Amino acid sequence: MSHVHHLTILLFLLPVLVKCSLHGARVKLKYVDSTTDFSKSELIRRATHRSLQRVSKLVSLVPSNNFSVACHASTASYVMDISIGTPPVLLSAILDTGSDLIWTQCNPCTACFAQPNPIFTPANSTTFSKIPCSASLCKSLTKSTCNSECDYEYSYGDGSSTKGFIGYETFSFGADNSVKFPGIGFGCGTNNIGATDNSSGIVGMGRGALSLVSQLNVSKFSYCFNSIHNKGSSILLLGSWANMTSNTSKSTPFMPNPHGSPMSSFYYLSLEGITVGETLLPIPPSVFQLTAEGSGGLIIDSGTTVTALEERAFIMVTRAFMSRIKLPQASGASLGLSLCFTLPDSGMKSVDIPKLIFHFDGADLDMPLENYIVEDTSNRLLCLGMVSTRGISILGNMQQQNMNILYDMEKGLLSFEPAVCSKL
């Protein structure tokens, strides 16, 4: 018999009701700005700004001599409300599919930045213990030192960093902290530079041993994101509750990750081509090829809003749209987007906009219009919701919206299907 509990997992501290069983969980999420009064254009500008920040951090990972984690916390989107320790201390931490380590700031602090929750004090918890150097989790750290305790150091692309020690602790979920997971390994940051803005740490959901997914032995999870203009809830499903719901779903395999590099946490996909309208663009296969050294390739990321395409592919895509959309070009600087057109008085419905299809290995992602075209009526702009990058390509969550996206680590597959998020 399954037991039903209540969890609260938040999108930047927005309270929601969640049902959970021992085998899975159904989580309601909200978009970061869904409770604000921002205009449509301001919502777009904020989303693009966060994306550009996150992309720059992800690009900074492309092979270098220094270890870095996936992004700076301020550039990610989703925050989960959990408690750690006994008695429980509230922790609002970023849910990050692009990294593994779970960490928060801890006392006694040599250097700590302001955060929304009280800083965790391990000495006040009866369930805290330091991880010994011989523990497998300590050995899983790419950069660690071991004297009397397992110390870690993570650096970010923008120069911020966290240093501290690794410990075991009980993680609790729900308003009454009734759902408890003892012995979760996490980083206690006592020397931290920078800030995590609206959160108090990071919960890694990547593919490595240190992530929450791995430590809880969750073999699959899925999410469905509403449009940023939709005030309704988005959904995160964990464990046995994460499934495809129709026979129209499509699946593509995850690619093997580069070993021994910061990119080993990412969820890589094989993008084999892009069609605009009826034309398969002549993009050389090497553009999206993942090298053994860890450069190139495409990852799917829940924290980046607009898709970032490797520059050579982006140029081909934008030229294809420019040749097919019969409107005057306009500056998209106000939104942070490169390719924009002047929106006619009659609106987007009167414009002949070509289809956009991403061809993955074994699966075509045929995007609905709202997943790649941005309409800003206040500034009379119609824009392509993508940006250019170098070194790595990223499938952002705008291109994933109104889709049920399933990460099945056991089968090594990413599956997707159109969905109404509120009905999942």
From TrEMBL:
Protein name: nepenthesin
PANTHER family, alphabetized: OS07G0533600 PROTEIN, OS07G0603500 PROTEIN-RELATED
Enzyme Commission number(s): 3.4.23.12
Active site as annotated: 96, 301
Species assigned in the record: Rhynchospora pubera
Keyword Transcription: no
Entry's family note: Belongs to the peptidase A1 family.
Annotated PROSITE patterns: PEPTIDASE_A1
Leader sequence residues: 1-20
Keywords: Aspartyl protease, Glycoprotein, Hydrolase, Protease, Signal
SUPFAM superfamilies per the UniProt record, alphabetical: Acid proteases
Catalytic activity reported: Similar to pepsin, but also cleaves on either side of Asp and at Lys-|-Arg
GO CC entries: extracellular region
Gene Ontology biological process terms in this record: proteolysis
